[in-house]
């Protein structure tokens, strides 16, 4: 079995998909033109996907009220400092500074322009 995707019911799936594609090295692999405006985005190596959609049958969560330790989308990066700076310039907001854990891994939390938490991670040794 393989994990295919993780989905987020959001208020602005089209705009979010464009921002993630432009700023997080993702590619939109499916874009439905009608409600619920499903957008599937694959990472640059084609191993992971996220889905943004807006299902009017339910209210999208207030992602800004969800603590980053409860929910976040993690992206492995090579240069955490430059990536963090670039995302801040593109409209993300900082949750914290870059932290180095005892393992040597570096991490930082940001919020995308719609308040979903993004974690940037530079691991000393890849987990998989």
Biggest sheet record: 5 strands, mixed
The value of Rg in angstroms is 15 Å
Structural category is alpha+beta
How many strand elements?
Answer: 9
**Helix and strand string, N-terminal first?**
EHEEEEHEEEE
Cα(first) to Cα(last) distance is 16 Å
Cα shape:
globular
Question: Brief overview, please?
Answer:
This protein is of the alpha+beta class. It has 2 helices and 9 strands, in the order βαββββαββββ. Strands 5, 6, 7, 8 and 9 form a 5-stranded mixed β-sheet that branches. The protein has a 4-stranded mixed β-sheet with strand order 1-4-3-2, covered by helices on one side.
Kindly describe this structure.
This protein is an alpha+beta fold. 16% of the residues lie in helices and 30% in strands. The chain has 2 helices and 9 strands. The strands form 2 sheets. Strands 5, 6, 7, 8 and 9 form a 5-stranded mixed beta sheet that branches. Strands 1-4-3-2 form a 4-stranded mixed beta sheet, covered by helices on one side. A hairpin with a 6-residue loop joins β3 and β4 (49-53). The protein is globular and about 45 Å long.
